[in-house]
Design brief:
It contains nine helices and 15 strands. The protein is about 30% helix and about 25% strand. The protein starts with a strand and ends with a helix. The radius of gyration is 21 Å and the shape is globular. Strand 6 and strand 7 form a beta hairpin. By secondary structure, it is α/β, with parallel strands linked by helices.
Length: about 325
């Protein structure tokens, strides 16, 4: 577009977003209309207006990670390379939340990584690691972490993490745009502070810029992990619910690798995998003499989700 400049959305709250220019400067931009369509990770075209800017166009996206319930759609970030789903051994994580986040990632063809925090708590961690066995069997990348918040002993208020887990994670994040997703209390803020030493300072600056001194936090924030701006960590708010109303119920099994592997053997093309004769998924569940590829808890979650998504359409 003639006269417009290129920029990257690095933070947002409400209608306003913080945009980083190609030279590294940051300024507030506003949408033309009442509702902003730009999310963190978007490339945009914008026009200067005094000391701020106006969004003229949101460039086409490679992907958009979002959740949707009956009332609203919540977009987390766009143009992602991967999603890091951070859960904790204690308090016990919700397998339903984990499954929903994985389905949302699969639907957008975004690579998910599962990180289990609090590996220093031997007994609860052992239980949680065992609970995650079906996800390892499906081929999801998984790593243990022991992230501890600042207790006064670390310099500059930084968080700390076990060296081995953190080094492995840093290698996975290199040259990637990664959204960190997880429920409140999983340790997302501590992880961000461990990986981005200036995160607290940057958050304060962004909040002040976006809200003109109002004490309101941004919804999602992108942090560069390196001077070259090639590795980005995108921190999002914690969530208790993760709606999947944007997923068609008949497409649900296709986003669950354990079910998908056996759904191709179904007798009927429009099989719901709940009661039909000749269903490859049900046949696998009833496998005798060996452990099924599909765990009972995963199949139960599939049934609950299928019913939930079907109710929203009829």
């Amino acid at each position: 577009m003639s006269g417009t400049l290129s920029g990257l959305v690095v933070a947002g709250f409400g209608r306003h977003v913080l945009v980083e220019t190609d030279t590294g400067e940051r300024l507030i931009c506003h949408p033309r209309g009442k509702k902003s369509q730009a999310v963190v990770g978007d490339r945009i075209r914008w026009l200067p207006s005094e000391d701020e800017g106006t969004i003229e166009k949101v460039e086409s996206r490679e992907n958009l990670f979002y959740r949707q319930d009956e009332m609203r759609t919540k977009s987390f970030a766009a143009n992602l390379d991967q999603v890091l789903i951070l859960i904790a051994a204690e308090p016990e994580f919700s397998e339903s939340q984990l499954t929903r986040a994985l389905i949302a990632a699969e639907a957008e063809r975004i690579k998910p990584i599962i990180a289990l925090n609090k590996s220093d708590l031997a007994e609860p961690f052992g239980r949680a690691w065992t609970k995650l066995a079906p996800y390892r069997a499906m081929g999801y990348q998984m790593l243990p972490l022991a992230i501890k918040p600042h207790d006064g002993s670390q310099p500059n208020g930084d968080s700390v993490a076990s060296a081995a887990g953190l080094q492995e994670l840093q290698a996975l994040l290199e040259n990637k745009k990664t959204l960190v997703l997880g429920p409140s209390g999983a340790g997302k803020s501590s992880l961000t502070n461990a990986l981005v030493p200036d995160a607290r300072v940057l958050t304060a600056e962004i909040s002040q810029a976006l809200n003109s001194g109002k004490h309101t936090t941004t919804s999602t924030t992108l942090y560069w992990m390196d001077a070259a701006r090639s590795s980005a960590l995108i921190d999002s708010p914690g969530f208790q619910e993760f709606g999947l109303h944007h997923i068609e119920p008949m497409h649900l099994a296709g986003h669950m690798p354990d079910l998908k592997a056996h759904a191709q053997h179904c007798k009927f093309y429009n099989c719901t995998h709940l009661h039909e004769p000749g269903c490859g998924v049900i046949t696998e569940l009833q496998a005798s003499g060996r452990v099924s590829d599909i765990s009972a808890s995963r199949y139960r979650l599939y049934g609950e989700l299928f019913e939930e998504l079907s109710q929203t359409r009829y």
